[in-house]
């Protein structure tokens, strides 16, 4: 069952008018929230980032955090599966097509739950492949906007060559993946690009840095060059749906020795322990 504008219904019965500004302009924001053992993970942080995204597009938050929590609880109850991921989507609503914000229009609010599938054991053992590309997105990548056309095109570049992700660089510096954050390991130090308007402040990114801090894993948050990525000992990918994944092939060059590295193994184990 999905949630649409205050009602629960089967997804087949859920429709949005064609004049919805999400459909016409991509005028909206979204969140993806993992649910483990039927409990939302880092919910407060996700709701805080939702508020940041709404502020970024000047759309009022339709609900208080308490109301969001109650609705999301209901979505989880209405869906099977111990582990799920919630997709929450808010647009500026339905109005005559005009770029200017409409007045007195209610936002469209849509929430669905899907099964949260762990990356396969095979993928965790052998690692995944990635390619690189120039980050040609807008400069408000900190807003989780539903207008994802550049991300879609960038991700497809990877899919076209059977890779899982496209790692992005702006002016020669690492930003993130098409739908993930990227870390590298250099001389046993975990390196993370600093949060800015050029990347999404990932909730999993925060978890990984907290795990590093709490477990005496040396880390640095600093600008990372494309050259550093190309000669990294390890490359790690994080997102709410993929957790932590090792990238072992970049283009057609192995990363480090071409196998998931020690720091990946450690952080992955710590993450599994932490989320339980
Ligand atoms: N994407 N950067 C981008 C561009 C993303 O789309 C995502 C997540 C992340 C990782 O953020 P988090 O750890 O909070 O999931 C970074 C989600 C999963 C998606 O669009 O499906």
* Regions with little confidence, pLDDT below 50 for 5+ residues: none
Might you state the CATH topology name of the largest domain?
Answer: D-amino Acid Aminotransferase, Chain A, domain 2
The percentage of residues in β strands lies in 25-35%
> What would you say the CATH architecture of the largest domain is?
Alpha-Beta Barrel
Q: On the 0-100 scale, what is the average pLDDT?
A: 98
Q: Over all CA atoms, what is the radius of gyration?
A: 19 Å
Name of the CATH first level of the largest domain: Alpha Beta
User: Could you describe the largest sheet, including whether it forms a barrel?
Assistant: 9 strands, mixed
Tell me, briefly, the overall form.
globular
Tell me the helix content.
Answer: 25-40%
What's the end-to-end separation, in Å?
A: 26 Å
According to CATH, the homologous superfamily of the largest domain is D-amino Acid Aminotransferase, subunit A, domain 2
Textual characterization of the structure:
The chain is α+β, with helices and mostly antiparallel strands and 276 residues long. The protein has 2 domains: 2-115, Aminotransferase class 4, branched-chain amino acid transferase, N-terminal domain (D-amino Acid Aminotransferase, Chain A, domain 1), CATH 3.30.470; 121-275, D-amino Acid Aminotransferase, Chain A, domain 2, CATH 3.20.10.10. It has 8 helices and 15 strands. The strands form 2 sheets. Strands 7, 8, 9, 10, 11, 12, 13, 14 and 15 form a 9-stranded mixed sheet that branches. A 6-stranded antiparallel sheet has the order 2-1-6-5-3-4. It is globular, with a radius of gyration of 19 Å. The structure holds N-(5'-phosphopyridoxyl)-D-alanine (PDD). N-(5'-phosphopyridoxyl)-D-alanine binds at residues 32, 151, 176, 179-181, 200, 202-205, 238-241.
């Amino acid at each position: 069952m999905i949630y649409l504008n205050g009602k629960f219904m089967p997804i087949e019965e859920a429709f949005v008018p064609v004049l919805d500004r999400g459909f016409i302009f991509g005028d909206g924001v979204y969140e993806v929230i993992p649910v483990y053992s039927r409990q939302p993970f880092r919910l407060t942080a996700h709701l805080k980032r939702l508020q940041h995204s709404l502020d970024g597009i000047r759309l009022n938050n339709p609900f208080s955090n308490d109301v969001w929590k109650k609705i999301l609880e209901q979505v989880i109850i209405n869906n099977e599966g111990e582990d799920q991921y919630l997709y929450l989507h808010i647009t500026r609503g339905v109005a005559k097509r005009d770029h200017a914000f409409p007045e007195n229009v209610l936002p469209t609010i849509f929430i669905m739950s899907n099964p949260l599938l762990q990356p396969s054991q095979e993928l965790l053992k052998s690692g995944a492949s990635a390619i690189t590309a120039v980050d040609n997105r807008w400069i408000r990548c900190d807003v989780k906007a539903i207008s994802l056309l550049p991300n879609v095109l960038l991700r497809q570049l990877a899919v076209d060559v059977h890779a899982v992700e496209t790692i992005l660089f702006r002016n020669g510096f690492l930003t993130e993946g098409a739908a993930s954050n990227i870390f590298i390991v250099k001389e046993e130090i975990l390196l993370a690009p600093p949060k800015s308007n050029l990347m999404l402040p990932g909730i999993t990114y925060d978890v990984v840095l907290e795990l590093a801090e709490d477990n005496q894993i040396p880390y640095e948050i600093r600008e990372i060059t494309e050259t550093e990525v190309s000669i990294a000992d390890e490359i790690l990918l994080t997102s709410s749906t993929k957790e932590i994944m090792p990238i072992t092939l970049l283009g057609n060059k192995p990363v480090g020795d071409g196998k998931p590295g020690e720091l990946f193994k450690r952080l992955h184990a710590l993450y599994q322990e932490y989320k339980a």
